[in-house]
Amino acid sequence: MMNFYRKSLLYDKDLSSKTNIANQHTDCMKAKLLYVEDDASLSFVTRDNLELQDYEVVHCADGKVALEQFKAQSFDLCILDVMLPEIDGFQVAEEIRKYDKQIPIIFLTAKSLKDDKIHGLKIGGDDYITKPFSIEELILKIEIFLRRSQIAPNSSGDIFMIGEYQFDHPNLQLSLGDEERTLTQKEADLLKMFVENKNNVLKRSEILIKLWGEDDYFLGRSLDVFISRLRKYLKKDETLKIENIHGVGFRLKA
Fold first, then answer.
1. pTM (2 d.p.)
2. Neighbours of 218 (CB within 10 A)
């Protein structure tokens, strides 16, 4: 069984090297990942491949230990399996969000558990990958989130007024008067797309490709969750509205 996993995932590693993934994330070298997975064979091979891509990986086999490690160390990104002993991946994510509103969280879910994906996004997850997954897909998603996280603090001129709200994209802050909300990276990136295209229609496919990397039905469901979150965040200003343009996409009216 071990040889099967290793052969399968190392094929993806070879493919990733052909696409020069290692060279693409030079700025993310030695990024520290919290990887939580109770399948010993899968976690061994996944960790091995991630370390070959120059990531520092802290692996935990259950949610309780994962939270202990998260509180004791500093991480750049979390990869959480949903079905875990002791404390499941959703509970781990909820606890992490109490301490850190910004760290990217990627869920690993079983293909049959579609509702898990929606629930995971609602509680603060940024993305998900369906099992069985390719190591190349995982590495690409990790790189995208780390690149955004590193670019954000150095950005300038990305503070916007949206109606009565002030939106500080680099620092992931949405403010209304004395009220301040910390957004996740993907929430902030999506809101920025709307602000930069205010009163214009954004195609669903355009958003998905830019923020999720591909136009896919289930990713579209994820997008709908993020749209619902932004509508909730902006509801105190009645002049703002994210409209659904049927069959096309969305428009921020301001």
1. 0.58
2. 14
